[in-house]
Amino acid sequence: MRRTDYIVQPCDPRTLTVSQLMQDAVFTCCPKADALSLSRMMTKWNIGSLPVMDEDRRLLGLVSEYDLLQALIEGRDLGKLTAADVMVEPVVTVTEEMTLVQVAQLFQDRYLTRVPVVRGEKLVGIVARRDLLAGHLNATQYWS
Predict the structure, then answer these.
(1) Residue 86 — φ and ψ, nearest 5°?
(2) Which pTM value belongs to this model?
(3) Are 126 and 96 a contacting pair, CB within 8 Å?
(4) Residues 59, 93: contact at Cβ < 8 Å?
(5) Segment 5-14, tens digit of pLDDT
């Protein structure tokens, strides 16, 4: 669920933190998952990326639509590739304490769409540009 749905009182959007903006229910995959299955999952659930996790829920990498499309452009067979083959590592991450402004600047500077949220080495959520916009709208009560 998007935590932005819980912002019900107007506030200064610059004070919002990632903890208030992120999605805490995140689809993930293991490094051995095949890229074709990842494509199906991303399409079915309308998600743009999948964090790649080990057995201890440590973040190993991230597979995005971009990575899968790049593999297709290169003529690679998604049925023969794994998440480990196409994932980006190391992954740009954010923490729950970062502000909307800090994360927005990171997205703009690095041309990012979404980033995993970590507490130590553990994945606790994901935050996307859309979450920042929704948080801003809810905080300023421009949402209709």
Answers:
(1) -115, -10
(2) 0.86
(3) no
(4) yes
(5) 555 566 788 8
